TrEMBL record:
It comes from Rhodoferax saidenbachensis. It comes from the Bacteria. The keyword Methyltransferase does not apply. This is QacE family quaternary ammonium compound efflux SMR transporter. It is a multi-pass membrane protein. The chain crosses the membrane at residues 74-92, 98-120, 127-145. One of its GO terms (cellular component) is plasma membrane. Keywords: Cell membrane, Membrane, Transmembrane, Transmembrane helix, Transport. Pfam families: Multi_Drug_Res. Belongs to the drug/metabolite transporter (DMT) superfamily. Small multidrug resistance (SMR) (TC 2.A.7.1) family. One of its GO terms (molecular function) is antiporter activity. SUPFAM superfamilies: Multidrug resistance efflux transporter EmrE. One of its GO terms (biological process) is xenobiotic detoxification by transmembrane export across the plasma membrane. It is found in: Cell membrane.
Length: 146
């Protein structure tokens, strides 16, 4: 596994996929250092995306487990939430906690609502759809502003 090297000291920044990496050396140029900070930020955005996916899988499995009565979905619940919180912790290295949590919960709400509609045949009324649309709009505003 390759690592992310910063300056002369090696610092490993794991990415959400096994063999991928970002490698660079920080130069003295302010513009160059800024683009390199963006690379770390983009890596942590991948961690945030992984946290969202794991949380959505775990929450969907929670519904499928019928109150943790079925062991297979229950195992997926535990594994999914452990992975989600680990990935979220990695993302919080550079993403502000308020922004990361808002995006994590907002995208998670929208995705779980859609999965509930398609997979579990749960109906969404006009109020629920309007709320989901507002949450999605808020996440888009956060992504643009952050």
């Amino acid at each position: 596994m390759r690592c992310l090297s910063v300056s002369s000291s090696l610092r490993r920044v794991p990415l959400p996929f096994p063999s991928a990496c970002v490698c660079w050396k920080v130069g003295w140029s302010p513009g160059r250092a800024s683009s390199e900070r963006m690379s770390v930020m983009q890596a942590n955005q991948w961690w945030l995306a992984a946290a969202i996916v794991c949380e959505v899988i775990a929450t969907s499995a929670l519904k499928a487990s019928d109150g943790l009565q079925h062991w297979r979905p229950a195992v997926l619940v535990v594994a999914g939430y452990v992975c989600a919180f680990y990935a979220l912790a990695q993302a919080l290295r550079t993403i502000p906690v308020g922004v990361a949590y808002a995006i994590w919960s907002g995208v998670g709400i929208v995705m779980v609502s859609l999965i509930g509609y398609w997979l579990f045949k749960q109906r969404l009324g006009t109020g629920e759809l309007a709320g989901i649309a507002l949450i999605a709009a808020g996440v888009i505003v956060l992504q643009i502003a952050a």
